[in-house]
Amino acid sequence: MSLTSHISDDTSVAVLETVDKQIASTISPAATLxxxxxxxxxxxxxxxxxxxxxxxxxxxxxxxxxxxxxxSLPPTPRDPPSLxxxxxxxxxxxxxxxxxxxxxxxxxxxxxxxxLQTAKGLAVAWQIPLLGVNHMQAHALTPRLVxxxxxxxxxxxxxxxxxxxxxxLLVSGGHTMLVHSKAxxxxxxxxxxxxxxxxxxxxxxxxxxxxxxxxxxxxDVMYGRLLEKFAFPDAQGYDDYIAPSTxxxxxxxxxxxxxxxxxAPLAETRSGSKSKxxxxxxxxxxxxxxxxxxxxxxxxxxxxxxxxxxxxxxVAFEHLASRVIMALMAMDRNGPAANTEKRIGTLVVSGxxxxxxxxxxxxRSFLDVRGYAHIRLTFPPPSLCTDNxxxxxxxxxxxxxxxxxxxxxxxxxxxxxxxxxxxxxxLGADGWKRRY
Length: 436
Description:
Elements: E1 2-7, E2 10-18, E3 31-40, H1 51-70, E4 82-87, E5 90-95, E6 99-105, H2 109-126, E7 130-134, H3 135-150, E8 166-171, E9 176-183, E10 186-192, H4 198-209, H5 212-216, H6 223-231, H7 247-250, H8 283-294, H9 302-334, E11 346-350, H10 357-369, E12 376-378, H11 382-385, H12 389-401, E13 404-406, E14 432-434
Parallel strand pairs: 1-6, 6-7, 8-11, 11-12
Antiparallel strand pairs: 1-2, 2-3, 4-5, 8-9, 9-10, 13-14
Helix pairs in contact: 1-2, 3-12, 4-6, 4-8, 4-9, 6-9, 9-10
C-alpha cells in the first residue's frame, strides 16, 4: 500500500492497495484505489501554467489532501503496525502504509521539491521507505494500473497487462516521445520532439483558432480539450475520418474549401531527408496556423474555424501515427519475426493528449489500414491520462516489488530521461537503494 503525492501544476494524492499474491483470490481485484483526488491550479488569468501560481496551489492544497487521504486508509487488523488518525474527538486505527511514493522528476523543481519534502517527512514520521518516481515511466505503466484495478488475482500470480515488451506513445504538454518499453526500467526512446511537445503546440494553435468568446469564458487553460469539443461538437464527425493507406497519400496537402492547405510536419523539407526521420516536429504547423488565421482583412467565420480545427488535429495526429508505423515496420525488418514472445502486441498511449478521442480514432485507423490490425491499442481512462497520483502510486509499487527504494537524501530532478542510453535512464539517477 502506498500514499502518494504527485506534483506538477496539479496537486494530487492517492492511496493504493495491492493484493498479496500469497493470499490472492479470484474474486478480488489485484489493486484497489482507496483514495484519489487532484486539485489543479487556477491559471486562467495567465492562459497557461504559471510556475508561481502552481507552487502556491501546491502549498495550499497538498497538506489538506494528505489529511483527507488518511481517513481512507483501510482499518488496521490485529498484526500490522497501525496509524492513529483523528476523527473529531475520537482516534481511528488505520493501517500504516508500507511505503510512500512521490514524483521526483522530470518537471519544475519548485513544484517537485514541495511534494518530495512532504513525502520525506511522512516517510520519516511513519518510518517507512520512500520511492522517488519518474513520472514519464509512470505514464508508460498506467495501463498496467488500469489492468490491476479491473482484473482479478489468482494464487498462481497475477500477470500485469500489458506484458513487456510494448510500445508507448507519451503525448502531453511537456513531452512527445515514442518509447519501446522492454521492462520495468528499460524504456528505449525511438522518436521524440525536436521542438515543442504536441500538447503545447495544440494548446497554442487553439488560441488562434478558437473564437475569442470561448477562450474568455473558459477557466480551462488546456485549450486542446476545448479545440476538440469545438471541432467535434457532441462527439460528431469522428467516423468521417479515413486514414491514408500509403505514406505518399499521407504527406499530400489537402486543399480546403477556404483556400488553405496544411503540410504534414517534416514532409516538405528541402532535401527530403526529414520525411522519414524518427522524430516529431510541431513548430512548423504552429507557424502555418498563425499565418492562416492572420490572412485577409475579414474575420474568419465559425465554419472555417471548425474546418481548421479538424484539419490541425488530423495533421498533428497523423504525424504521431506515421512514426508509430515507421517504428513497427523497422522492427519487422530487423527483428526475428518468428520469435512471437518479443514481438510488439500493444501500443500504449498515455499523457494528457491521450484523452483526445480523435487521436484514438486516427491511431486505430492507421494501424488497421497499414497492416497492423493485430496491435492492441490501449488508452487509460481520461482521469488517468493527465498527471495524477494513482499512476505514481502504481509505479512506486512496481519498483518496490522489484526491490527498489530511494534514499532520504535524494533530490528532485528537472530533467530525468527514461532511456538507459541517456545518463543511465531511470536507474541512472543517484539515490536508489536495493532492499534485496
